[in-house]
Fold this protein.
Amino acid sequence: MTDQPSTPTNTSLARHIDFLFEVGSLRYAIRTWSQFLNPNCQNLTEHTLRVVWIALVLAKHEGITDTSKIIKMALVHDISESRSVDVNYVSRQYADRHEDKAISDTLGDTLLLDEFLPIWEEYEERQTLEAKIVKDADHLDVDLELRELEAMGNKLGQVLMPSRQDALESRFFTETARKMWQEIQKSDPHHWHLMARRG
């Protein structure tokens, strides 16, 4: 658990505007696996949005009817990376990102701190079903993006397949996520629009 600064009684709107600018800056934060031959990867805002939707799909399949915590957890799961930055599987071996400090400082002096810091901590601990679902969604977004890159001619997905198989076998928490991973591997990113209604 991180040290939780108390929420100030007179929190200014100016501090919240700073926070919103910081959240907006995530659209300029490219995920660091773009280092690997510069594929056209999502930025952190795009990643977060799809993680929210993946988590909602998983939650419904896993029997969760109230998805409000899932949405909040998915929204906050990577927000500290505006300060601690994203790391790929190589840089992760060397970086000490102090994410607990980053999340505390990102949310500090806002009226969101008391609500969202515990949700982020719950996500990091991976003990609850909600936390497991959001982490599964985080992993699945990688596989969706790899399929999209493959459709554009990038072979990074083939190179990373052994590590993605490992994710299937050792990192996924829910059965729904494992099944979804299998479906993603044989999916066509163009199918949704090719089969869409046409006037």
The chain has one domain: 13-194. Residues 10 and 109 are 9 Å apart (CA to CA). The longest helix spans residues 129-151.
